[in-house]
Write a structure and sequence with these properties.
Layout: H1 11-24, H2 31-52, E1 94-97, E2 103-108, H3 122-140, E3 146-154, E4 163-174, E5 177-186, E6 189-199
Antiparallel strand pairs: 1-2, 2-4, 3-6, 4-5, 5-6
Length: 206
């Protein structure tokens, strides 16, 4: 039995997909150009589909154990819709974590994340906070966990095309639960803040 070869980085492909998505949101093309672009993208899709093979099954179990402290918060980062540089819909959110699990992330959101004019959609504000809370959980909890509760307070609109700082900290633990909190800031001002309760399933608790 041979080892499966390492998956090549798809970051360059993802960057092009992000650029296309962003352009679609503001480009005003005549109908003939729309048809041409649609056909060209269809050819690319067929090319990739033919070479990708069948779509794999979704995982149904979690791997146990703590993450390796190498700048990657969890084993699924390459497929994360928030922090993967290879995901065509991620900002991406880059982050650092200290030994206590305090996480500091940075993102700059394109037009693809717009809700109100010039502002991030509130649902994605919650996604950013939920994700950075999960980063803290990955560093501080001894096994797999879920978000049990998430509360988000929208202090102001989170702006697009601006460097954002997204932070998270562990407040306390109670048995299988971890309580975390954090904020999203733009130019030093809090745009949104929140709290979450993370919980480990009983089968993973020691």
């Amino acid at each position: 039995m041979t080892d499966r070869p390492e998956r090549a980085s798809w970051q360059p492909v993802a960057e092009q997909m992000k650029a296309i998505t962003n352009t679609i949101l503001w480009a005003d093309l005549p109908e003939d150009d729309v048809a041409h672009v649609t056909a060209a993208l269809g050819e690319i899709n067929r090319y990739l589909t033919e070479r990708a093979g069948p779509e794999p099954d979704l995982p149904t179990t979690f791997a146990s154990g703590r993450p390796v402290r190498d700048g990657v918060a969890h084993n699924f980062r390459r497929r994360s819709m928030v922090s993967s540089p290879e995901h065509p819909f991620s900002p991406p959110l880059t982050f650092e974590v200290d030994d206590e699990g305090n996480a500091t992330g940075h993102a700059n959101l394109s037009r693809a994340f717009q809700g109100p004019p010039g502002r991030c959609h509130g649902g994605y504000v919650a996604v950013l906070l939920d994700h950075i809370f999960g980063v803290t959980g990955a560093w501080t909890m001894p096994g797999p966990f879920f978000t049990k509760a998430l509360e988000v307070v929208y202090d102001a609109g989170v702006p697009l095309l601006v460097d954002l700082e997204v932070t998270s900290r562990l407040d306390r633990t109670e048995g299988r639960k971890a309580f975390v909190s954090g904020e999203i800031r733009a130019d030093g001002e809090v745009c949104a803040h929140g709290t979450a309760v993370l919980v480990m399933p009983k089968e993973f608790a020691s």
